[in-house]
Amino acid sequence: MSTFLYRLGRGAYGRPWPFILGWVLVLAAVVSALVVNGVKVTSEMKIDNTEAQQVLDRVIDELPEASGGQASVVFTVPDGQRLDTPERMAAIAETVQEVYALEQVVNPADLVNALGQPGAPGPDQPAAEPAAPGADAQQRPTRPGAEQPQYQPLVVDGTPVPGVLVSTQAPVALFQFQFTVPSTSLTDEEVSAVLEVVKDAEEDGTGLRVLPSESLKAIEIPVGPAEVVGLAVAAVVLVLTLGSLVAAGLPLVTALVGVGIGVGTAFVLSTSVEMNSATPVLALMIGLAVGIDYALFVVNRQRRLIIDRGLAAREAAGRAVGTAGSAVFFAGLTVIVALVALTVIGISLLTTMALVAASTVLLAVLIALTLLPALLGLIGERIVSAKARQKGLTKREEETHSVADHWVKAVVRFRWPVIVGIVAVLGLGAIPAASMDLGLPTGATANTDTAARQSYEAVTRGFGEGFNGPLLVTVESAEGTAVDPQTLGAVTQQLQQRDDIVAAMPVGTSKDGAMAVLSVIPTSGPDDDATADLVQALRAPTSSMAQEYDVVVGVTGFTAIGIDMSDRLAEVVPVYLAVIVGLSLLILLVVFRSIVVPIQATVGFLLSILATFGVTTAVFSWGWLGWLVGIDTGGPLMSFIPVIVTGILYGLAMDYQVFLVSSMRESYVHGYHGKASVVHGFDQASRVVVAAAVIMVSVFAGFIFTHDVMIKQIGFALATGILIDAFLVRITLTPALMALFGDKAWWMPRWLDRILPDLDVEGDRLLQMLARRQDSEEPPRPDAVGTR
């Protein structure tokens, strides 16, 4: 591997333009396709093969007329004022009619004719749900004695306004409506058209305040100026690490080319593959971090070879690609394996995210091994200044790393206290993870100054918290025949008698009568455990309702989908961990030719990932130091964040393991033994590993301050995870454990050593080849500074 990459690096250095033009053409092709095809992303999240999704898919097939996406708008007035004045009621009615006049919005009269049942959409339900009750509240049965806010239809000039409910206890009106197409098919222009119409009600001088629901938020890519700040920090770290503006610019350029191709391709594919808006952002996040780090490793190795050994730039570039490039290759392979392993879960949302992110990592590796040496060829000997060369002639490399040398010697000397202390600290940080709550974001967890949060609270005050998360319930005969109307009435009545349900109302029946659909309003909110219990109780085939009436009950809706998503992902996390740990252990076994090192790397990761989830839970669920990340209300973590973060962090943690421990392995192979190999290898690699970790934390931290809570949580978890893993586990715990084992850390059974391929990551065979071919090694050329 090292000899092949050595030749590749020298070839790209010697003939840079074919490599540069090749990558430029690829980037140009992606940009051209993007201009032609445009971008189409969605904020919808679906989890395949869950009960809620299967029920929803059947509803779409049986009741296509009600398959459009739903949204709601809340109208309020200042405290102490009345909503039901003639002017304000007329303004609401006029706004409602203007919304119904839009081409993309369903007129409720058409829906009634199509379904044969009155109805209007419920607030914040996912695409493809039929209407929830509310358009004809006079006919909506309610549970006697329910301690819930009372409401009635909005009546103007003696005529009820369809789709609008008015609270009798609070100055709140709720307007619920349905789109003609699923949410995934809505464009920003269509959503904006609705927002423009409803916002006009605020400008009519009536004093109304309009609060659109979360489902009316414009779909956008959650990237802003905070990411630029992260890149700026990365640039400063590169300059300090490499000591040259020219050298520091190369990792930034190559990383931007990589994410430009990777993220651009994802956007191109978004027109033909359903893609969540977080997918390209995740690829951008990872692509920037690994792209900068991988290029940094290669450039830093080239500069050290020039400064410390006096090699010419071309020879140094070839050797850097052959040695550091080998580590880049296997580090990238570990990240790719961790990401691609997400596909075994069988969830299309995660599969798309994983494959796009893995493709971006693959691009980062290929660019670091081809485009980077080509750019180094254009720069030539200018990669290192004359001053730096002269300094290298008079100063040993170990002396330039005095801080690292003192640090590792202290860690090695006090290895037992270090090991016990790190394990104790990480164990303490992991405690909150035991109470980690998973779910989907709702208005209840949005910041208090957002329309989504204020809309949620207004609905709760005026209509009850359950209206923020209605359930869609299907009733089918166990024999597959048409549902008898009397049976449907009895089922509906029994639902209404439950203490945990406010109301239940039929909203439609399939053409063959085999499926009846009801909208059920729970007494509890979408994030409440009582709602999850209700969903499970309704689904239970042994429930009294199912057995008494011989029916099959299904439950779907935004709330039910969120519950199923959390349960499904919680089930697959152990399986996923087993897959990536198994595959990565195999890779590390081949790379390091050791039994101890892969186990030590994996145990260290498990400690860091548990502490990461503990800190993330404390901040986002418990609300500790929430102001630092821009939140004022705690809530559940996004359901799929544990899986995504686990995969990404495992791959990135193994990056630092490969670069740091491969340096110790290289020292061991070249004659250092015991603690000396740990100290020497640490001195060689620690500075660049620390710089790479700081860069990665900076890039991830830039995404913490985006407005999107999902990206905010992912950015925080990744930044925290890298901070913990790089500085506590790799820089501190790893050298302590390696010193504890000494040369035994490199032990491997002879039979296993014979069957494993020797990949020569440390470049020993490369050095032997160069020693045999002295004529191929270029002498130092200090007189060539400033030229190529």
UniProtKB/TrEMBL annotation:
<dbReference type="InterPro" id="IPR000731">
    <property type="entry name" value="SSD"/>
</dbReference>
<dbReference type="Pfam" id="PF03176">
    <property type="entry name" value="MMPL"/>
</dbReference>
<feature type="transmembrane region" description="Helical">
    <location>
        <begin position="228"/>
        <end position="261"/>
    </location>
</feature>
<feature type="transmembrane region" description="Helical">
    <location>
        <begin position="416"/>
        <end position="434"/>
    </location>
</feature>
<feature type="transmembrane region" description="Helical">
    <location>
        <begin position="575"/>
        <end position="596"/>
    </location>
</feature>
<feature type="transmembrane region" description="Helical">
    <location>
        <begin position="637"/>
        <end position="664"/>
    </location>
</feature>
<feature type="transmembrane region" description="Helical">
    <location>
        <begin position="320"/>
        <end position="347"/>
    </location>
</feature>
<keyword id="KW-1133">Transmembrane helix</keyword>
<feature type="transmembrane region" description="Helical">
    <location>
        <begin position="603"/>
        <end position="625"/>
    </location>
</feature>
<feature type="transmembrane region" description="Helical">
    <location>
        <begin position="281"/>
        <end position="299"/>
    </location>
</feature>
<keyword id="KW-0812">Transmembrane</keyword>
<keyword id="KW-1003">Cell membrane</keyword>
<feature type="compositionally biased region" description="Low complexity">
    <location>
        <begin position="125"/>
        <end position="139"/>
    </location>
</feature>
<dbReference type="GO" id="GO:0005886">
    <property type="term" value="C:plasma membrane"/>
</dbReference>
<feature type="region of interest" description="Disordered">
    <location>
        <begin position="114"/>
        <end position="150"/>
    </location>
</feature>
<dbReference type="InterPro" id="IPR050545">
    <property type="entry name" value="Mycobact_MmpL"/>
</dbReference>
<feature type="transmembrane region" description="Helical">
    <location>
        <begin position="20"/>
        <end position="39"/>
    </location>
</feature>
<keyword id="KW-0472">Membrane</keyword>
<feature type="domain" description="SSD">
    <location>
        <begin position="245"/>
        <end position="378"/>
    </location>
</feature>
<feature type="transmembrane region" description="Helical">
    <location>
        <begin position="353"/>
        <end position="379"/>
    </location>
</feature>
<dbReference type="InterPro" id="IPR004869">
    <property type="entry name" value="MMPL_dom"/>
</dbReference>
<feature type="transmembrane region" description="Helical">
    <location>
        <begin position="685"/>
        <end position="705"/>
    </location>
</feature>
<feature type="transmembrane region" description="Helical">
    <location>
        <begin position="717"/>
        <end position="741"/>
    </location>
</feature>
<protein>
    <submittedName>
        <fullName>Transporter</fullName>
    </submittedName>
</protein>
